[in-house]
Amino acid sequence: MSRFILLYIGDGKSGDPEKDSDNYNKYMEWLGKLNKILVSPANPLKDNTIVKSDRIIENVSVTGLSGYTIIEAANIKEAAEISKGCPFLDSGGVIEIAELIQMNR
């Protein structure tokens, strides 16, 4: 099994607190169903900051990255199929998937 990172792009919020709470609960249920393949679930990000090539620091996000989950799957196709069930997508979010590569030290 390989490891894949699911990158959550967007804030996952609809603007309706009740709907957002419902989506959050669905997301947590979805993670619970993935229990055996989860390596690092539900890692939200905040205070996104970039360092530009001219070394200027800005408190912005160029990607809209809001969090990530790491799972194990046989291949990227399987990881993508697993991601299709994520309720984060129901609020207009996007999930980008990439295989994690082990680096030799």
Structure, explained:
- It is a single chain.
- The protein has 105 residues and is of the alpha+beta class.
- It has a single domain (2-99), classed as Alpha-Beta Plaits, CATH 3.30.70.1060.
- It has two helices and six strands, in the order βαββββαβ.
- It has helices spanning 17-33, 76-83; strands spanning 2-9, 38-44, 50-51, 57-58, 65-73, 94-99.
- The strands form two sheets. The protein has a four-stranded antiparallel β-sheet with strand order 2-5-1-6. A two-stranded antiparallel sheet has the order 3-4.
Please sum up the structure shown.
This protein has 105 residues and is of the alpha+beta class. The protein has helices at 17-33, 76-83; strands at residues 2-9, 38-44, 50-51, 57-58, 65-73, 94-99. Strands 2-5-1-6 form a 4-stranded antiparallel beta sheet. Strands 3-4 form a two-stranded antiparallel ribbon.
